[in-house]
Amino acid sequence: MKRYSMGKFTAEEIQIAKAVDLVDLAEQIGIPLKRKGRFYQAVGMDSVMIFNRSSWCRFSQGVGGSTIDFLEYFRNMDFVEAVKYLLEFAGYIRTETMQKFQPERQIGKIEETKQKKDIPKEPFVLPSKSETSRRLYGYLIKQRKLSKQMIDFWVKKGILYESGTYHNLVFVGKDPEGIPRFASQRGTMDKYGKPFKGDVTGNDKTYGVNLVDRNSDTIYVYEAVIDAMSDMELRGDYQNNILVLGMLSDGPLEKFLKDYPHIRKIQFCLDNDLRGRQAAKKLAKKYTLMEYEVFVRLPPMGKDYNAFLQYKKENQELSSLVEKERPLLTETKGTQIQKIKKTVGHRNIVPYQIAQAR
Question: Helix, strand, or coil here: 97?
């Protein structure tokens, strides 16, 4: 295989490129595959095998390697073309390395900044939709352990879909008239490293992704949509207002409470880490003094509610497996099996009192 210098690609970007699912990639570039045991085989090229969905080999030619090698060999791309293609395929948007300003380039910098401020804001346009939601469901069910029922609920509400170009998850925030005002995207590569995350250009950051129940006076506030979905599933509750703050800015919450004045109770369900606890304390104090009934709910285990959902489901699966295998295991002399206790429920919800706020 021919090799080029990594040039301006970072080690992390190379890793993301190599972590692209080879089965999905082959399908994308028109190489049909068939399952053969634990591997995949190219139709019409019996000696081409894909292993672990991340490496390949063509035994008849003695070639193989990573996803980058795959594009170099089958699509005659050079190293740079292949990496760029794979990053786009993974939904990763590159930020070009900024060059240091030379002293002479500082001249007129203030004027350039003023001119940039005068440039009209780009229009807000939602990413195109994929014809299917295969990757969306696959990622949320397999990696995030969400149920199909919960995903269906969010998809049918029109606030979650799979993008057409890069197959990212797209989360949509709407105003009281149901008009999209905000959207954020996230890639599905966090199994192999940091996923792509980013807001859609031109959005209004005073809105957040939300679910509205006009019959409820309570709102649940989260840092991330997947945490909101996870906690809804844990509680089995679809009947309350939901709001995702994103970067922990309370601008969307202020806007939401203004748009829906019937809400009087706020439950902050933020991450159970230092940043989340500090934000919960700050927000709880602010809204308690504004005479809302405020509660702080931290996940009982793990960093966030999705981590807790995954733990709970994996624990249940393991418990079920132990129960299923118990007759076989108890036949072995001296074998002792300790039943795994299921973790159920949450820590006590902590009300934030006026005295604490003052």
Answer: coil
